[in-house]
Amino acid sequence: VSPQMTRPALDLSRLLHPSGIAVVEASADPSTMAGKPLWALVHFGYAGAVYPIHPDLKELLGLTCYSSVAEVPQPCDVALVATEPGSVPGIIADCGGAGIPFAVILTAGFGESDEAGGDLQREIAAVASAHGVRVLGPNCQGLLNARDNVYAGFSGIFDNPGLRAGPAAMVMQSGFGFALAGAAEQAGMGFSYMVSVGNEADLTAVDVLEFVLEDREIELACVYLEGVSDGDRLRDLGKRALEIAKPVLVWKIGTTTAGQRAAASHTGRLTTRNDLYRAAFREGGFIEVTDLQEMIDIAQAFRMQRLPEGRSVGVVTVTGGAGVELADRCEDRGLSLAELSGSTVERLQRLHPGVLADPGNPLDVTSTSLREPGLYRGAIDLVLADHRIDQVIACNGGIQGEIAAPATLDLVAAAGPSPKPVLVCWTPRAGSSDDSLRTLEQHKIPCYATPARVATAAAALAGFAGKLARGPIDRSPTRAVDRRRLGPLPEEGVLCEHLSGQVLAAYGIPVARGHLLPGDEVVGLRESPLPFPVAVKVDSPDVAHATEAGLVRLGIRSLDELRRASLELLDAARALGLNVHGVLVQEMTEGIEMIAGTVVDACFGPAVVLGLGGIFTEAVGEVTHQFAPFDREAARRMCDDLRAGSILRGIRGGPPADLDALADALSRLSWLAVDHLDRLAEIDVNPLFVRQQGRGVLAADASVVVRRGAME
Amino acid sequence: VSPQMTRPALDLSRLLHPSGIAVVEASADPSTMAGKPLWALVHFGYAGAVYPIHPDLKELLGLTCYSSVAEVPQPCDVALVATEPGSVPGIIADCGGAGIPFAVILTAGFGESDEAGGDLQREIAAVASAHGVRVLGPNCQGLLNARDNVYAGFSGIFDNPGLRAGPAAMVMQSGFGFALAGAAEQAGMGFSYMVSVGNEADLTAVDVLEFVLEDREIELACVYLEGVSDGDRLRDLGKRALEIAKPVLVWKIGTTTAGQRAAASHTGRLTTRNDLYRAAFREGGFIEVTDLQEMIDIAQAFRMQRLPEGRSVGVVTVTGGAGVELADRCEDRGLSLAELSGSTVERLQRLHPGVLADPGNPLDVTSTSLREPGLYRGAIDLVLADHRIDQVIACNGGIQGEIAAPATLDLVAAAGPSPKPVLVCWTPRAGSSDDSLRTLEQHKIPCYATPARVATAAAALAGFAGKLARGPIDRSPTRAVDRRRLGPLPEEGVLCEHLSGQVLAAYGIPVARGHLLPGDEVVGLRESPLPFPVAVKVDSPDVAHATEAGLVRLGIRSLDELRRASLELLDAARALGLNVHGVLVQEMTEGIEMIAGTVVDACFGPAVVLGLGGIFTEAVGEVTHQFAPFDREAARRMCDDLRAGSILRGIRGGPPADLDALADALSRLSWLAVDHLDRLAEIDVNPLFVRQQGRGVLAADASVVVRRGAME
């Protein structure tokens, strides 16, 4: 797929850069929903035409009024609508008639309020589609184009003329996003566009993001996200962001709802939707943020338009304590302070044998030595030039006054010719070094007050660069396995373990050998169906995991024991009133217990989940997701994503586990989920034993949930 | 111990509130180390006497000069010293002669630079002690008392007159602390004292903290900490902080491997395991912070002088999106949004049946409804009054202008009579609602720009309140076990597993039954010394953990197998050139594998460590420490501290583990470590099997390291 192919077909130019705007139910009172934008459009420098719509008035704020949208002359690209909900569909139809391509519906009282509102919202979508009008909202707070002073909305920020425009765009689903964007603007971040999409009756946050990301002057987009309805579109956007190397900072809310907690309390159901968002963010050009300062700080770093090649950082500091703190905060964020190369060490020693007698990373040049001409610049130059160093953090501590200005010039001079990012950690007192701060800003060298903040920004650069280097995931992988029929499945419900194992086996996923022993054959059993030791489990469609129900006996070593255990289990199951097929006699195995499974998400479709299995699934609470289908390489990435993946790579004298076999099984699982999407609601293998390298994997307890669907 | 008993004996009043200050090697040039404080003391409103010391000049900045400290008249409480290092001991002796009780040594070039500097630093300590002078520094940046305009130091902040004084104090080991304190002051935090302790030749950060914490007007202390040399003193301070309910915000640097490496090269301080600092912080009145904003935000919350009773938060918001975001951030930080009680729900519905038809937590009153008189105040009142709610976060979103002022008054009126904390999340644009922000400040209601920040502050309040409620740990617990002799131990080194087990057994810690089989008895073995199944391990003083070395066979079930495995292991061990005592035949057991052990830290003394065992120790990477000795209750707290502790409490259908037995074993381990502190360098039990409730624990692999020490 060529980059051109994925560019958005949707042209929102006239929405974001309207030549004329009609304001429906306009008012001269700037405290009303429609009065506020009218006031701002008239007074804050908008160069296009403004058409107040009012049933009675002839004139408002010196502008000619029109009695309805239908009468508005051209050019008019946007109708801003703040009337009562019931009138909105008619106004949208009028827009179509008048050739107004976009309506921005500020009015609330639609899908977010009640059922009738939901109906009205669907009507809006239908009318808009029928009349060729694209709709932003309803229940949105409008849009603001700070480049062209398009103030087409009503939140607090619309009271302020002369907002800083800049190379960022912000798209938000919740109105709270405007409060955040406003605070970010005030803190120095320049937004060309801020767009609130509200209920997304028509245009979605992803639509708007896709469009603004292609804007030449936009270097970075931010999105305040509640959720999307089409996970594939979000993944497309993430892929596109990587293709054009523009990061999308995503502030996702709703990451820890009570419902997710409830789901997590049941082992094996750790697959909450938010994990899937995380998976989408991880594979694409997204950077997740959870706070305003973080968003601003990361955006500042990307202003440099430089990316590091790897995760190593060189720290040059004027105070040793800050060097330690920077080392901590970098390591916290997965960055490393690489050892300087031998030649850099030698050159530093030659640069100043006194101060730099034993140069390391962090490199402390001391604040008093800042008075030595050439020292600071030389030190930064040398560290930047070291091939082991991917980016540099220069810490000026709390210096200010006469010592600050030359240090800043040194810093800028050193940073200038390098292709590597240079970030500054500096906390001068306001007013003490404003010229220096301006100098840094002019050179787009970002400056942060604390080690934590600068390290967060540096890590975001490294993370994005890593994604660019790795490239987007292959979304059309080669098949790991041909499509297979699954044989007859019950209409719906949880399959018993025996049948669940057959589903996995059909896709070549190794399953522990098992023999289903009907209940009435137990007493007369003359020989174990499998060599000892064996496990015995109740096989019942009513029990997803026999272990959790306590209906399992492990390590059985004699026929007597087998008979006794089987009878006990059958009794226990009958006492619980379960439907029982019999007992499953299963080979015992060992290895590292993992959990692997599939989920089918309404928004993202099928995905595979992987985590530590057995009792550790919940206690460790770490799982990773990958969208299906995927190949072995992507499966290996899943293992790398898990912190617990170190167990698989072999620790405490243990041999490495069979990662190849695990990757193969995961990839097969992904194809199984995709091929039988209409029937397989969920698969849960826990434990999946991962044995030593070369010995493969073995599913020891599987549970498949089928749902009504097309016939096989 | 009565609270009075632990109050510091050290009186630093004259250091922090000096009646007169001598400035050694004074200069009229404010850019020099001694010239800067002289300038500031003369010009920034210090009311005490200032005595410039200069060998030649008669007068400096209009003040009479003295040729040496010995000539300075009274009152003089502090000598500020910035001369070359070699002259410092003599000046300190002169201070003693002149009756000057404190010397503040700004000069660098002591312990932090080289061996000669270290000797000179020890000389300073000796001279100070001999002459009755207490010393701050050397290599410190001085102290600043903003109440009395005592500018006795030289970092950037000393250039600024009229610093805000306030109920906080900051003590710092690294000069970078001044940069941070300065930035915090500028952001609205008032410090009465900022003290840099430098190399701590005499006075330490803990000395200063202990003193300032008792100051009536100090409500909270901050410390920028590299490390302490006396862990017990730090623990005492933490205990005292809880007794007088004043939090100590601790910003500890060197918390990661990279940071510790950097710290080791930057300071001569002991790099104690950070886990032990964490343990000290956790048990005492400390709150750990890692960034400036966090420090400021938490300090703001404590200004209210209100603490919540539990961890539940009520959120009242004017924007639904912010409510979700607040719920996320609260949950991230271990706070819960409790369900409102039925009566609160009813009252809210009665308050406004339209807006509050279905009230929940977060409670969205919507920004347009802020215009409804009484609604906002009533909603906050009711949520605050709910017994399920411990504190309230009120979110004003981005509202500003005319709507903001009455909302703020409502908020203040509701918060006023309640004993519960009320925190505000609000991002008005600068200049748009300054009166309202001032109103909040006057009422000490803290206001934060984002959900993450307000949640961090609320969590800090809840955490501190929880510690107050739980009280300090019992540092003189009842003995779990009498002091026992350990029998003959080798001079030093790692004990073989057999002997290690005996050490544990002596203190009543259950050890897996084992039989040491000499190598020459293996071939002729006629009977297993223990019932099958058994494990066999090489028993060698050269192998701390046989498992890690691969010298173990598990699940042996026959005499043949036992002989074969033993011979193979002995061959393997001989091939590795190990000293071998024989093979240890051990009973097999099962249960949850934990790691338990002891360490002896130069700074904190003996401590016990607990974590998940086996392959999970490293992969999960979560351990907790407790200082020895301790009782079972403190041991139970260790289990609670572990996230993986949920495994012990029983998950995935598993029965709960024997927590009582585990707590007992940990407490015994703590006594073992304390009683034999002079010989036992380290104990490592991995795995310690924790079996089902009632079945106890069993140490299956232990390794004890002894060192030279007093004879038993």
Write the layout of secondary structure elements.
The structure is a homodimer of 712-residue chains.
Chain A: H1 13-16, E1 20-24, H2 35-43, E2 49-53, E3 59-60, E4 63-64, E5 78-81, H3 88-98, E6 102-105, H4 115-131, E7 134-136, E8 142-145, E9 150-153, E10 168-172, H5 176-186, E11 191-196, H6 205-213, E12 220-225, H7 231-243, E13 248-252, H8 258-264, H9 273-283, E14 286-288, H10 292-303, E15 313-317, H11 320-332, H12 342-351, E16 363-364, H13 375-385, E17 391-397, H14 404-415, E18 422-426, H15 434-442, E19 447-448, H16 451-470, E20 493-494, H17 497-506, E21 514-517, E22 534-539, E23 552-556, H18 559-575, E24 582-587, E25 592-601, E26 605-612, H19 616-620, E27 623-627, H20 632-641, H21 645-648, H22 659-675, E28 680-690, E29 697-699, E30 702-706
Parallel strand pairs in A: 1-2, 1-5, 5-6, 6-7, 10-11, 10-12, 12-13, 13-14, 15-16, 15-17, 17-18, 18-19
Antiparallel strand pairs in A: 3-4, 8-9, 8-11, 20-30, 21-24, 22-23, 22-24, 25-26, 25-28, 26-27, 28-29, 28-30
Helix pairs in contact in A: 3-4, 6-7, 7-9, 10-16, 11-16, 12-13, 13-14, 14-15, 20-22
Explain the overall architecture:
The structure is a homodimer of 712-residue chains. Chain A has 712 residues and is α/β, with parallel strands linked by helices. In chain A, the strands form 6 sheets. Chain A has a 7-stranded mixed β-sheet with strand order 9-8-11-10-12-13-14, with helices on both faces. In chain A, strands 20, 25, 26, 27, 28, 29 and 30 form a 7-stranded antiparallel β-sheet that branches. In chain A, β12, α7 and β13 form a beta-alpha-beta unit. The longest helix of chain A has 20 residues. Chain A starts with 12 loop residues before the first helix and ends in a 6-residue tail after the last strand. The N terminus of chain A is likely disordered. At the A-B interface, α5, α11, α16 and α19 of A face α5, α8, α11, α16 and α18 of B.
